[in-house]
Amino acid sequence: MAATAPCGSGAEETGSEAAAGKPGGTSFQRKGPRAGGLDRGGSRLVSIAGTRPSVRNGQLLVSTGLPALDQLLGGGLAVGTVLLIEEDKYDIYSPLLFKYFLAEGIISGHTLLVASAKEDPADILQELPAPLLDNHCKKEFDEDSCNDKTPESNIEMKIAWRYQLLPKMQAGPVSSSRFGHYYDVSKRIPQELIEASKWYGFFLPEKLSSSLPAEPCYLTHGYLKLLQFIQSIIYEDGFDGTNPQKKQKNILRIGIQNLGSPLWGDDICCTENCDNNHNLTKFLYVLRGLLRNSLSACIITVPSHLIQNKAVIARVANLSDTVVGLESFMGSEKETNPLYKDYHGLIHIRKIPRLNNLTGDISDVKDLAFKLKRKLFTIELELKKERKDFIMPSVTPSE
Amino acid sequence: MFPELNDLLNTTPDKVEQGKLTLLCDAQTDGSFLLHHFLSFYLRANCKVCFVALTQSFSHYSIVAQKLGVSLTTARERGQLVVLEGLKSSVDVFFRAQEEPHPLQFLRKASAGDLQPLYEFVQEALKPVDGEEAAWRCPVLLMDDLSVLLSLGVGAVAVLDLVHYCRATVCCKLKGNLVALVHDSGGAEDEESNTLLNGLSHQSHLILRVEGLATGFCRDVHGQLTILRRTLSQPTVQGERRLTYQYKIQDKNVSFFARGMSPAVL
C-alpha cells in the first residue's frame, strides 16, 4: 500500500505498510522515516535485493539491466509497471534489451517468468549475457583489453585449509546489493547462475497443444493462457502479498517476447481491419491490473512496425507505462548517412510514466543513438556534427 | 486544485456551476493533471463525487490529491467519494465469472461490449440517499478515461450512449456535473476515437484541450491549454469563447501564463 507522510491536513496513518496488509493498494513504497516516526513494513520492502527507491518520489525501482537506460528512465523501471519495447525492424537489438532485463533478474536473485511463442524459454535463458563482476567491469569497457579470466589463485590455503574444500564459484546471486550491473554480450551467463535462479517458462506451443479451442473466446487463447499463467504464479508465490507468511519478499520479473505477432494467434499484424483488434489492448490492460497489485515488473517487446492499424499502436502505447522504441539503421538509407556511421540505430524514449506525481522524470536529452560494440550495448547522445542536408527526425512533444 | 486554473475558469469551490458537461481532451501529451485538478476541486467544494478510475490505481490518485491538499481515503470513508478502480476490478472480473452484473463485465464479451452495468453503477453511486440530502452539494461524475473503453473493445457509439445516459441522469435529473477525459489520437487513423471526440465536443459546455507545443519539447513550457466555453442558453453574438494559455507543471501546482510569457523567457 503506498503511503505518504500527511501534509498536515490529512488524517491518514503514517506507517508504510507492506503490500500484505492492504488489499487494495499497490506496492509503491516511500522510503525513509515518516513524520509520525513509524516504519513498520517499509524498511523490509526496501531491502529487497536489486531494488532501490526513486529519488523523486520514493517508488521502488528495479534496474533494466542497462544502467544507461535506467538513467534515461529516471533511475530504473518502477515496480508494478510495464516497459514496452517497440522492436526494430529485423528484431536484432530488442532481444538484447530483453535479455539484459532477464540477466539482471538472475543476478539480483529475482524470480523470472519468461513467455515466448517463438523460442523455448530455457533456450532464451541459455543465451543471456554474462555479468561483469566488480573488479572487472572497469577494465572490460576497453575494447582493447585482453583479460577475461579471474586470476585463479591456486595457492593452497595454509591456515584456513578447511575452506579450500568449498567450491570456488558462487552459486547464488553474484552481487545482489548493487543496483544495475554491466554485462558482456559476447559471453554466455554461467550455467550455475541459471540453475540457482528460480524461473518459470511459458512456451506457447506447449501450453496450447493440450486443448484446441473451438468456440471464439473473449480474448485470444494464447493471451488468455498467458494471463492465467501469470496470475497463478503471482498468487502461488505470494507476489501480491496475499500470503504474509512468505519469509522474504522478492520481485517477479516478467518478460514477454514478440507480443502481438501472429505466433500468438493475434492477427493485428496481418490485417488492418480485423474484427477484434482489441485483443492486445485488452491483454495489456488486464496485465497492468495484475502488475499494479503485485511486486513485479514486466518487459514486453512488440513488433509495432508490423501492426497494420496505426490506431492500435497508439492505444498500445497509451496502455503501457514506459515505451521505448528502437530504430535500427540496418537496411535503411540512414545506414550510409555519414552522421550515423558510428551507430547502429536510434533509441526513442516515447513515454515516461507519471506515477504518484503530476510530472514524470523526463530527461532533457532527446536524440539518442545506440551502438552494439563487441561486448557492450551503449546508448549515447547523438553528436550533432555540421548538418547541411541533415533533416531533423520529428520530435514528438513529450509530456 | 490549481488556484490559477480556477481563476482562468472563473470558478471557486464556493460557487460551483451545475448541470455542466466538461470535456478534457489531450493530444500528444498527458492531460491527467486536469483530472487531478477537478477531482480535488469538487471534493473541496463539498460535492458528492463518483470517480471511474480506469487508467491508474487508486493510490496514484490518492498521493497526487494529497499533494493538492485533499485526502481521498478520508473522502471515501465519509461517503463523499465512490471510486471504481478499473485496474483492480478488471482482474477480478476477468478471472472469475461474477454472479451479479459487474460494471466491467464487458471484458468477458467477445463482441462489442455492453456498458449498461457501468451506467447502473454510476446511477447507484450518485443517487441521493435519504438521510444525507443536505450533506453534499451536487453530484459529480468523473471519468478517467473514456479512450480506455475504446481500447477494451467497446464501440464509440456505445461510449457515446453511456455519456448520454450519464448526462441525462447526472446533469439534468440530479443537477450535477460530468467531467470526462478523452485522448485525441491526432490523426485520421483512429476513427473510433475521432467519432467519440467529435460527439462529445458537440455536447460539452466546457472543453479544455491540452496539447504539446508545436515546436517540440521544452523544459519550461510543458504545453498549451485551450479553453473553449460554450454558452448554450443565451445565443448571443459571442456564442463561443476560446482562450489559449501555456502551462508548466510543477511538483504540487501548475502555473499558467499567456502564450510566450513564460517566466523563463521573460
TrEMBL record, chain A:
Protein name: Elongator complex protein 4 isoform X2
Domain of life: Eukaryota
Organism (species): Echinops telfairi
TrEMBL record, chain B:
Name of protein: Elongator complex protein 6
Signal peptide: none
Underlying gene: ELP6
Pfam families: ELP6
Protein origin, superkingdom: Eukaryota
Pathway: tRNA modification; 5-methoxycarbonylmethyl-2-thiouridine-tRNA biosynthesis
Family: Belongs to the ELP6 family.
